[in-house]
Specification:
The chain is α+β, with helices and mostly antiparallel strands. Helices cover 60% and strands 12% of the residues. Helix 2 packs parallel to helix 5 and helix 3 packs antiparallel against helix 5.
Length: 259
């Protein structure tokens, strides 16, 4: 608006008689000035919207790239620790917030692993007073809780389960610093959690397949060993059985030396 008004005033100052004055001899210039001001306002508004749309498109492209990179990195993960580390760093890249991951351990959820969004590695984010209570509730119910959500809304962080097919592999806490996530930002964040859960499930399935393969190999080895032993024992047993049969059938016909 300021630029539009300034352009009309400067045009009047430099190009309309009398020059170097905001007065004009022709009253028709008032219409000209109005048209110029309207055109400038419309052009400025459209340019501003275009810049806003460009920025929004750049942000969405960046978030889509983060999701694509997450998929690529998780495909190369070789352990649950790698999956957790990659997921946390990609969430930090997307949101720029501190992240704590509570992985599933034997007997329940383990202690939190903190990942800081600050380059120095230090952060001032204090955990919630009822942190373990929230984590346990989210794990048991497989529902998100925390900041501005239905449950534990007074918390400083949002706690989201890493779940797939009814199985929970851990909890991710994101400290939002008092601001909510945008809709598209939230959808990308949930997609990253879905990719994380899928990768953890694939690793678990691969581990179970490896265990089943080891058991099958052990069973095959046991069967081969039993067949080998039975074959080795069968040969002398056949001789012993034949001699015993001769003794039973022809005992009287055999002399003492033969017996």
């Amino acid at each position: 608006v300021v630029g539009s008004l300034a352009s009309v005033l400067l045009f009047n100052w430099f190009f309309i008689e009398p020059r170097f004055s905001f007065h004009t001899y022709e009253p028709e210039y008032a219409v000209t000035f109005a048209i110029m001001l309207t055109s400038a306002l419309i052009t400025g508004t459209l340019a501003n919207k275009l810049k806003g749309n460009s920025r929004q498109a750049a942000r969405e492209a960046f978030r889509a790239k983060v999701l694509f990179d997450t998929n690529q990195l998780l495909q190369n993960a070789e352990s649950p620790q790698d999956v957790i580390r990659i997921t946390a760093h990609q969430i930090i890249t997307l949101l720029g917030r501190d992240v704590i991951v509570y992985p599933l351990e034997l007997g329940g959820i383990g202690g939190g692993i903190r990942f800081s969004a600050h380059q120095s590695g230090s952060d001032d984010t204090a955990p919630d007073d009822n942190e373990q209570e929230i984590v346990s509730w989210v794990f048991d119910n497989q529902q998100a809780a925390g900041f501005r959500l239905e449950h534990f809304s007074a918390a400083r962080a949002q706690y989201h389960p890493i779940c797939i097919n009814g199985h929970c592999y851990g909890i991710v806490a994101v400290y939002l610093d008092g601001t909510s996530l945008e809709t598209f930002e939230y959808s990308v964040f949930m997609s990253i959690l879905g990719e994380c859960a899928l990768s953890l499930e694939n690793l678990q399935n691969a581990l179970e397949r490896e265990r089943a393969s080891v058991m099958a190999r052990n069973e095959q080895l046991r069967s081969n060993l039993l067949r080998s032993i039975s074959h080795d024992i069968r040969t002398p047993l056949t001789s012993i059985s034949g001699n015993a049969s001769n003794l039973l059938s022809h005992y009287q016909q055999l002399d003492d030396e033969t017996r």
